[in-house]
Amino acid sequence: MSSAIHQETVRPAPVDFRRAMGRFCTGVTVIACGTDDSTDAMTANAMTSVSIDPLMLLVSIRTAGRLSGRLGIGCSFSVSVLSEAQEDLSALFARPDRPRGAEAFERLGSWRGPGGSALAAGALAAFECTVEAEYPGGDHTLFLGRVTAVHQGPAEARPLLYYRGGHPRLLDPLSLPAFDQPQEVETIHA
User: Fold this and answer.
1) Taking every annotated instance into account, which residue ranges of this chain make up the domain Flavin reductase like (predicted)?
2) If you compute the radius of gyration of the chain from its CA atoms, what whole number of angstroms results?
3) How distant, in Å, are the alpha carbons of 21, 96, 178 from that of 14?
């Protein structure tokens, strides 16, 4: 007997869509724009790499949200990839009443990248970007960012994951091969 996925013939409800998407494990980021008194930031897991040449990434931000209104073609923003130790930062910037301005900058650790955007101190990695293009996507706007700077945090830190509404832990990420180390690749022929 097959263990095929049940096929639904009716239009899915938004709650069912959210529940199903929650089964896709992601990392957690804080997207920020501005610095010092003009800092605004939000927690997001909708970030992906797009291109190596040129370096580009994409973030998805709710169109009616306050951060979306601050971004446009040519604007600078940053994406900080959070570590397990930054779960409280994730919760803080996920709230509707999250801090902004100098308080947001301070809570992020008062770290400003060379491009001028606030970055989360202690992040696994951080990317500074300039908005290259934006696209409507339902109730979100997709911002394509050209990466202008890359910062790498502590190699021993563990990533903050998001899965089914919670933050599971990797058992031993340090036993995984490092991406930047040469690896033998087995070629499989059909």
Assistant:
1) 21-169
2) 18
3) 10, 20, 38
pLDDT tens readout for residues 4-54? 666 656 788 988 888 887 777 788 999 999 888 999 999 998 899 999 999
| pTM to 2 decimal places | 0.83
Which domains, and CATH codes, for the chain? 26-164 (2.30.110.10)
- The number of angstroms, rounded, from the C-alpha of 48 to the middle of its chain's C-alpha atoms is 7
